[in-house]
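Homework-ish question, so no full write-ups if that breaks the rules, but can someone show me the predicted structure for this set?
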Amino acid sequence: MTDIIGYFLITVGILFDIFGCIGLVRFPDVYNRLQASTKCVTLGTIFLLIGVAFVSATGTISAKAIICAVFILITSPTAAHAIAKGSYASGVKLWEESVVDKYGEDMKK
Amino acid sequence: MRRSIYLVLTFIIWILLTWPFADGTVDLQVVVAGIIASAFVAIIFHDILPKEHHVFVSPIRIFWFLVYVPVFFYYVTKANFDVVYRALHPQMPIKPGIVKIKTNLKSDSAITALANSITLTPGTLTVDLTEDGYLYIHWINVKSDDVEQATCLIAQRFEWFIKKIFE
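A: Not a homework solution, just the prediction itself:
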């Protein structure tokens, strides 16, 4: 039973990872791509790791998988924030059809 | 106090990673090495670790944290379906932009938690924050560029929980 749940979670995780990568290719600029990569890939990888924890079903490997999941949950949004801020600071423009840019307006003041 | 809390936390992570209790005995070598390593981390790095160490020992805050986890997970899953929908839709229905929101949270850890929660949830990505409590959010589908309304739509549902946990 735990095997079935585990493989199901791994499948869902891989699907999310694939959709995240499709988003990464299709979206027009750095910031939108970061949206796709942080959200889908974070959740996909966490699903994968929880699936691994279920399939292995032994204390040590499960504990390691869960700890990895927690660390990914903490570090991946932080990394996305750093990349977004860094690319804005180095002058990467928003997509030309973007609606509003409060950050740029406030930086000029 | 702060050092001992971080010593215990680091040691728990060490034990979970190395698991010295295989085949019914305790591997003392690993345990001693773990104590030395976590003492090292706690003494040297306690300055840069979060200052809100009381969070780890207060039952009420841990309770609110445990309530927050499923709520957060619900929003993360919703966010994922939203982004997947936008990524796979042939016309790509996105309307991106950077908006500004205001937060009332004060402590560093609370603002970090809020920024990370915002990044992982529906169509929003924290770009920068200012000293006086404003966050700049990249929003994949801008519904409002007004500061108050955007705060209401993006941050409010997390702020309430994070205030209970950290402040």
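Now go work out the reasoning yourself. Hint: The interface with chain B takes residues 16, 19-20, 22-23, 26-29, 31-32, 34-36, 38-40, 42-43, 59-60, 63-64, 67, 73-74, 76-78, 80-81, 84-85, 88, 94-95, 97-104, 106 of chain A (CB under 8 Å).
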